[in-house]
């Protein structure tokens, strides 16, 4: 499973020196940034769009202000490898069910 965990808390600067800002399509990934940090986005219907997702809908990662974070569900979900990781404020935590 490929993840973007290494970007937890890191700023992304583009080749031209600007901070990454907006939605980027890189190979088969969708990456969402705000002020250089991976960040979820709010969709047109109010739904939360994950900061990182695969085009085929099999992998999602939720970041808030550059840190892996999701309070009510796993912050990393990989459907192909059946992996769920729970994170709060950039720190991995155990899931409510004890599964990690």
Structure description:
The chain has 100 residues and is an all-beta fold. Helix content is 0%, strand content 39%. The chain has no helices and twelve strands. The strands form three sheets. Strands 1, 2, 3, 6, 7, 10, 11 and 12 form an eight-stranded antiparallel β-sheet that branches. A two-stranded antiparallel ribbon has the order 4-5. Strand 6 and strand 7 form a beta hairpin. The radius of gyration is 13 Å and the shape is globular.
Keywords:
12 strands, mainly beta, eight-stranded antiparallel sheet, 100 residues, two-stranded antiparallel ribbon, globular
Question: What's the gist of this structure?
Answer:
This protein is mostly beta strands and 100 residues long.
Write the layout of secondary structure elements.
Blueprint: E1 22-26, E2 29-34, E3 37-38, E4 41-42, E5 48-49, E6 52-54, E7 59-61, E8 63-64, E9 67-68, E10 76-78, E11 83-88, E12 91-93
Antiparallel strand pairs: 1-2, 2-3, 2-6, 4-5, 6-7, 7-10, 8-9, 10-11, 11-12
Mean pLDDT: 93
Principal-axis shape: globular
The number of helical segments is: 0
Computed CA radius of gyration, to the nearest angstrom? 13 Å
Strand content: 35-45%
N-to-C span = 15 Å
Poorly predicted parts: none
As a percent range, the share of helical residues equals: under 10%
In total, the number of strands is 12
Let me know the largest β-sheet: 8 strands, antiparallel
Report the structural category.
mainly beta
- Following the backbone from N to C, one meets helices and strands in this order, namely EEEEEEEEEEEE
């Amino acid at each position: 499973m490929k993840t973007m965990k290494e970007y937890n808390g890191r700023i992304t600067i583009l080749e031209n020196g600007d901070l990454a800002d907006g939605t980027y399509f890189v190979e088969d990934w969708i990456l969402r940034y705000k002020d250089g940090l991976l960040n979820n986005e709010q969709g047109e219907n109010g739904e939360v769009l994950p900061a990182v997702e695969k085009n085929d809908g099999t992998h999602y990662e939720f970041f808030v202000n550059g840190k892996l974070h999701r309070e009510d569900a796993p912050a990393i979900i990989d459907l192909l490898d059946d992996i769920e990781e729970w994170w709060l404020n950039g720190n991995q935590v155990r899931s409510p069910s004890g599964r990690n």
